[in-house]
Specification:
The protein has 348 residues and is an alpha/beta fold. The chain folds into 2 domains: 139 residues, Rossmann fold (3-Layer(aba) Sandwich), CATH 3.40.50.720; 173 residues, Lactate dehydrogenase/glycoside hydrolase, family 4, C-terminal (L-2-Hydroxyisocaproate Dehydrogenase, Chain A, domain 2), CATH 3.90.110. Belongs to the LDH/MDH superfamily.
């Protein structure tokens, strides 16, 4: 009697079952951190790369109306995901993919040229926000929103109103990068490491931003104690010119390379890190001020030193500004509100 031969490989057609003793889907997936980036242009990709290099996300989702672009960027990065902690990286136009996100970063509509006036830029980006913010927040109601799109202060206010989120869970990138740039330029002028310099720029992310020269220090040594006129018009060393360089940095970079993205991406990732890991860092980001404490009794978003953690803005840092800094702060606050008035009726 002949005996039937056993198949050489009973697992033919099911390599994964043979190779793995238990399928990945059999395990509970309770520790995933999903980060959503709305917009897959230069800025969105820079934010995504910075987040992935810090290994903050186990799942990164690019959402863009240009689905082909979002998918292409996601696939391009995914090819080297083995060196980024093996995250799941997705490109889509489907808002439902934002479901259960920890942080949603909005870069959509961000300015990449010098050809637009602030008014038309606000109008265009506000129209985009009216569509994307409610759609994303419907699927990620417990997330923290980080707004990067220009003009960031006013669009942060709009995002807070459109989302219905508590104000502390809507953060604008604000003057965080401006503060880093001032720190960098001061370090260059002194010939030392930027890590040894403490410097802050507050208020509007724009021309009326305020450098806090009274608090600039190197390893705790205040430069104002050495040069009492630092940053003033009477300053013999012209330190104030560094703030002008900060304000002009975006337009300068756009003029020279067509866009700017990497500094924004790295700073945005630092804010995401503070939220995901609850680091409680103190940085200058744009936050909601109700009945503004800085001379104008109107509700606005503007940058102040804030403690950022798991629930977003956890507290403000009080600082005794000089009379000159206080005056400039009031003027900046007024500038933000005057620009913001054009969209207030649409947010009622």
């Amino acid at each position: 009697m002949s005996v039937a031969k056993k198949k050489a490989n009973d697992t033919a057609g099911n390599t994964a079952k043979f190779l793995l003793t238990k399928q990945a889907e059999d395990y509970a997936d309770s520790h995933r951190v999903k980060i959503v980036i709305v917009g897959s242009g230069y800025t969105g990709v820079a934010v995504g790369i910075a987040i992935l290099f810090k290994r903050l996300a186990s799942e990164l989702v690019f959402i863009d109306l240009n689905e082909d672009l979002a998918k292409a960027e996601a696939e391009d990065i995914s090819h080297a995901a083995a060196f980024l902690g093996n995250p799941r990286i997705i490109g889509t136009k489907d808002y439902s993919m934002a479901r259960d996100a920890t942080v949603c970063v909005f870069t959509v509509g961000d300015r990449s040229t010098n050809n637009q006036e602030n008014g038309s830029l606000l109008e265009r980006n506000f129209e985009i926000f009216k569509d994307v913010v409610p759609n994303v927040c419907k699927y990620a109601p417990n997330s923290v929103l980080l707004i990067v799109t220009t003009p960031v202060d006013i669009l942060s206010y709009a995002a807070m109103k459109l989302s219905g989120f508590p104000p502390q869970r809507v953060i604008g990138l604000g003057t965080f990068l401006d503060s880093c740039r001032l720190q960098h330029f001061i370090a260059q002028k002194l010939g030392i490491s930027a890590g040894a310099v403490q410097a802050s720029v507050i208020c509007e992310n724009g021309a009326t931003s305020v450098p806090v020269w009274s608090a600039v220090s190197v390893m705790g040594i205040k430069l104002k104690d050495i040069n009492k006129d630092i940053g003033m018009k009477t300053d013999p060393e012209s330190w104030g010119e560094l703030h002008t360089k900060v304000v002009d940095s975006d337009s300068d970079l756009i003029a020279r390379k067509g866009y700017r993205s990497w500094g924004i991406g790295i700073c945005a990732a630092e804010v995401v890190d503070a939220i995901v890991r609850n680091t409680c860092i103190c940085i200058t980001v744009s936050a909601y001020l109700k009945g503004c404490r800085h001379g104008l009794e109107k509700d606005v978003y503007m940058s102040l030193p804030c403690i950022v953690g798991r629930n977003g803005i956890q507290s403000f840092l009080r600082h005794p500004y000089t009379p000159e800094e206080q005056e400039l702060t009031e003027a900046s606050c007024r500038s933000i509100y005057e620009t913001q008035r054009s969209i207030l009726q649409a947010l009622q």
